[in-house]
Amino acid sequence: MSAVAGSLVLALLWACAAIQVDTGFDKNADFSQYKTYFWLSRPASGNASVDRRIVELIDAALRSKGWREVGEGKGDAALDAEVLTEEEERNDTYYDGWVLNQNLGPADTVVTTFQEGTLIVNVLDGRSMRPVWRGVAHETLRWNPAENEKLAADAISRMFSAFPPRPARR
């Protein structure tokens, strides 16, 4: 397989990949008591504009849920957000032949290096600092900053789509 064909396959795989978003919460927390929040820790990815945009997106998501930002230490809830990036490597081997469930013939291995990005958002009780909710989004980062901003917007939208959690039925 040529390098161009390998790049095309890789591009198609990236285009089909979905952002992985997971959320969890303390089932004993009463989310109806949380209406205000403050930022305990803002993301520090090394890119100030990306960090600022993440904060804006989270603020907008919380405002849409009726929450309001207040001064540090004065909210019902505290927010902690972190951005982690890690360089990953993927090895894909392509064979020219395939017979009886076995790969045969010459093979080409394509090694691809890419950045994985993880956004972690924690909501803590503002008084006890006990964690009550956590959202984690994980995705391959793009070379284009505008595409990464779209990824962040999608991740935060999905992360907060069912926020705050509904109380458990008793």
UniProtKB/TrEMBL annotation:
<dbReference type="InterPro" id="IPR025411">
    <property type="entry name" value="DUF4136"/>
</dbReference>
<protein>
    <submittedName>
        <fullName>DUF4136 domain-containing protein</fullName>
    </submittedName>
</protein>
<dbReference type="Pfam" id="PF13590">
    <property type="entry name" value="DUF4136"/>
</dbReference>
<feature type="signal peptide">
    <location>
        <begin position="1"/>
        <end position="17"/>
    </location>
</feature>
<feature type="domain" description="DUF4136">
    <location>
        <begin position="21"/>
        <end position="165"/>
    </location>
</feature>
<keyword id="KW-0732">Signal</keyword>
